[in-house]
Every structure is written in structure tokens, then in C-alpha cells.
## 1
Amino acid sequence: MNDNTTPPYRPDFAVQNGQVVPYADATVSIMAPGLTFASTVFEGMRAYWNAEHEQLYILHLHDHLERLQFSMRVIELDNPPTTADFTAQVIACLQANDLREDCYIRVQAYVDDWGEIIATGPVGSSVVCRKRARVEAFTTGKHFAVSSWRRNAEDASPPRIKATANYLNSRLAGLEAKRIGSDGAIILNRDGTVSEGPGGCLFIVREGQLITPPVTAGILESITRRTLLVLAKDMGLDAVERDVGRTELYLAEECLYCGTGQEIVPILSVDGKQIGDGQPAPLTRRLQQSYDDIVRCRNEAYKSWLTPVYAKDGE
Ligand SMILES: Cc1ncc(COP(=O)(O)O)c(C=O)c1O
């Protein structure tokens, strides 16, 4: 296994069109509509290593693959792989690379070969996985700024689909954030309320209540966001989905960024205005702790959210 923790990431094996192949052999046509017209949808998942169990657990595999089915249906791909197909391929990919630490998995479906904007096939697919440790900001937090870019709208390039096309908007916001010296961007929708960040959703806390923009605010229906809403309920916390105004970010006692890759990142300031005391805050920390126990299979009650990768004797 090579060290693929820093870019460029090069795992030993990938899965392409259902077959495990050396990573270098997994290629697409330079005229594929997946590339020329962004006719590509994808998923990003994490798997967590539990050293005591000697097991790798994929978090919310089924939910991610069902969201991919939805994305593929919206962009109209011909006879794409099923959730059962992709489930087997994700496990095969992790096993082929013998990954035994925290990692990230990307599953893609695209129009391959050479075709028009409206080509619906031939459909290509791929699964790629690599080591990926927790982001440092999980512990330290990040400073965010509201972007001058607006979120792509539901009636133009719907954020609910996890399509590569939507990530141009994310890229522009991310580049601007970097240019102005911020760690991350918060993107407003056309109505001027908060949607999400380039690769994650947002929660604020006001008077002890967790608040996150609704699924109609121009967001990806984030699985981490949904997880946090379930967790909040199970922890007896008050949580609501409602529109969030820009200046509410400044009033918030706590603010956090969440998504598969980032997990849960405390937001320390927005637009240079300190959130709370400018340190990772208590409720965010509680959610992080609970999340960490769940994803590493230390909390039996949520075991059904995890898919083990390696076969164990007697199981
Ligand atoms: C634009 C965007 N929003 C939200 C999320 C969070 O979604 P999830 O929690 O399903 O990973 C992501 C990341 O995957 C994303 O790219």
C-alpha cells in the first residue's frame, strides 16, 4: 500500500465499471460527456478503523448509495449500477487496497465515450478509496466568511443532486475565501438566507437551540446534517430546520460546519466577528464526541449505521 495521504492521491487499485483494476488503468475518454458537459454525479463517504475490533466501518453506506441513485435518476443515466452493485464494489475496493485506517471513498457515475449534452449513455462508473485522517480543524476550528457568490438555484443547477457541475459554484466560493484569508465560505442563496458551505452544511446555536437551514434553502441533503438532527433529538437537545439570516450567524452562541469529509468543524468566527468566546463551544464538542463514538462503532445503539468491510470468523 503506497502512502496516499497527500495529493496526488494514488491508491493501488480502483473499481471501474464493476471490475477491480490497477488505479493507473482506470481511465475515461477525453471526450466523455462526464467531462465535457459535467454529466457526472458522485458520492463521498468515510470509513473508520476500529483497532480494537480490527475492523473498518463504512458510515451510512446505504444512504449514500441511495442518494447516488437519486442523482443518477435526475440526470437520466441509462441502466446505471444498482445500490447492491455499488455496495459490493465499495467493499471490493477497500479490500483490494487493504485499507486498515480511516479512509475516504468516492463513487462516481458518468456518461463515458463521446456524446452530446443530452447523451444518457454509455454509463461509466468508478470507486476510488484512499487513506484520509480526520481534519485538524475538527479540534481547532475554522474561521469562515460569507461569500459574494450565491448558491446555484434549485431551478438552475439543483444543489440537492450531488453533481460535479454544482462544485463550480463551490470552487468559486472556496477560491474567494482563500483569497481573502478565510478558512471557509458560507454561501447565501438567492433569497439572501444561508444555504451551506462549498462542501458541507451549517448549524448555529441560539439560546441553546440548534438551527440548520431547511432542505429547500439550496443545500445538498447532507447525510451528516441529518445524522446530527437525529443525534440532537436522541440527546434531548432542541433542534429545528428553518431559514437562517446572515446576521444570525453573528448572533449565534455556536456555529458548526458538517459533512462527510469535514465531519463536525467548530466555526470560531464569521466575517471576522467572533462566535461565542471564539473557541470550540460546548454543544459542538458534545456532538463531536457522540459522533466519534458512533462512527467508530463504540456505541452499539447506532451499529446499524455502519457496514463492516472485513469478514470475521463466526460472523
Ligand atoms: C455542497 C455540499 N453540501 C453538503 C455536504 C455534506 O453532505 P454529507 O453530509 O452527505 O457528506 C457536502 C459534502 O459531501 C457537500 O459537498
Note: Helices lie at 33-36, 61-75, 83-96, 137-140, 167-179, 223-234, 246-251, 282-295.
## 2
Amino acid sequence: MDKINFDFKNRTAVVTGGAQGFGLDIAKRFLESGGKVIIWDIDPKMIEKAIQELNNPNLSSGVVDVSNYREVEENVNDITKKSNIDILINNAGITGPTAPLWEYDIDMWKKVVDINLMGTFNCCRAIVPNMIQNNYGRIVNVASVAGKDGNANASAYSVGKAGAIGLTKSLGKELADKNIAVNAVTPAGAKTRILDQMSKEHVQRMLSKVPRGRFLEVEEFTSLICWLSSEENTFSTAAVFDISGGRSTY
Ligand SMILES: NC(=O)c1ccc[n+]([C@@H]2O[C@H](COP(=O)([O-])OP(=O)(O)OC[C@H]3O[C@@H](n4cnc5c(N)ncnc54)[C@H](O)[C@@H]3O)[C@@H](O)[C@H]2O)c1
């Protein structure tokens, strides 16, 4: 299938968790479409690998823990000295262990919410002022069907993603009088490294709920992200876009 061309010329995007999985594919497609991309990731080795793989002068990177506001802010200040940030993809995330709430390790619970929810807040908090100044912005928050349905044995992840959906709705309305769109996406399972963090039974249970009967392909996900991040998305904001193969039909 031929890919639709999106125009990201003269656009700069920050993609968090961009060193692998969904984030890496998004970075690749933005670059192919003429954009400049900065990937932020907590894993320096994977960043190095991504830079070698994509091999593009319009790609730069930062070792950033999105759950650390100061780190996020410092990196934003460095970038905005040279360029505006037009696009923010809040994609960094972890699932945490598979366990019932009453057995869940308390520090891990906090960590999962810190990365999935506070990370999204931190990046929006630091980058939105630049978008307001520039009167342009496209933000996509990568949530999950877990944030809509609530997955058993994944309470921290479900809460973090539900929080990111609530944040999207609030922030989208706060910015609706400007040329800034804030949307969330709710993918079902795709075969990236993140699945290794969950038990095989949990992954099988997730898949059994998908009417399409298969995993989401990374490229299918990127395609939705591209439209939401493009200048062509002039109206949709504060919305949740489902990409779950028919699992979450609301
Ligand atoms: N793959 C799926 O089945 C699936 C389904 C629904 C939602 N999602 C969401 O999609 C997003 C991307 O996941 P993926 O499947 O590509 O996973 P992945 O594990 O392949 O990639 C996630 C990236 O985030 C980075 N990261 C983790 N913690 C970070 C932090 N504190 N700061 C910065 N970077 C950090 C990791 O190093 C990694 O490179 C996540 O938010 C995930 O919850 C994935």
C-alpha cells in the first residue's frame, strides 16, 4: 500500500520515547515527510541505535526522563533557543508489572503513573508556552485502550493512560481558541518491546478482545499520528481517536 504524503517541511517535532517501537517509526515518517525531529528517550544505547538506523541530518536527540520536569524544561530551553517546537508526541511509556492492585508494588505503581501521566503533563507544561507564542501546535498523547476499558492486573497503567485522556480533554479546551490541537490516541496491542513487560497470558487476553483478530501494525499507528500532527488537522481537538481494531467502540 502506498503511503499518503504529509507535509512536515519547516516543522519541528519532539517525539518522546522515540528510540524504538511506535516512537521510532513516527520519527522515521516525520523525517521522510521533510520534518525535523528530536527524539527524547531515557535509554542512551537505544537512542544511539536509532540515530544510526535513521541516519538523517534532520534528526537530533536528548537523553531525557520525561518524569523529571527539570530535565524536560532544560531540554525545551535548549531547543527553543534555536527553533520553535511545532509538534509534540507524548509517546514515552511503560506498562509496569502484571499484578492485581492489592499485590502491586507501591513504588512501581507510582513509577508507572509518573511516566505515563506526569511525563505527559511535564512535556505539555514545558512546551505549550512556546506553541502559544508561535500560535501553532499539534500535540498527540499516546494513551491506550487500557485507559478507556481499564485492564485487569494493569491498574497503574490503566490509571496513567486514563489520566492522559483527561489531560487531553482539558488542555484541548484550554487551547481551542488558538491554532493548537491536542488529541489522544488509544491503540490496542502492537508487537513492540513493551509487550515483553507483560505476561504471555495477559498479552493473549488483550489480543482475544480485538475483533480484527490481530496485532496493530506500527505503520498503521503512525499513519493516524501523522494526520493528527499535520497542519491539515484544523478542527479536531480535545478528542480521543481509537485505533483498537474494533475493541473499544466508544
Ligand atoms: N505496543 C503496544 O501494544 C501499545 C498499546 C497501547 C499503547 N501503547 C503505548 O505506546 C507508547 C509507545 O510504546 P511502544 O509499544 O513503542 O513501547 P517501547 O517499549 O518499544 O518504547 C517505549 C520507549 O519509551 C522509552 N521510555 C520509557 N520510560 C521513559 C522515560 N521515563 N522517559 C523517556 N523515555 C522513556 C523507552 O526507553 C522506549 O524507548 C507507550 O506510551 C505505550 O504505553 C503501546
Note: DSSP finds eight helices and seven strands in the chain.
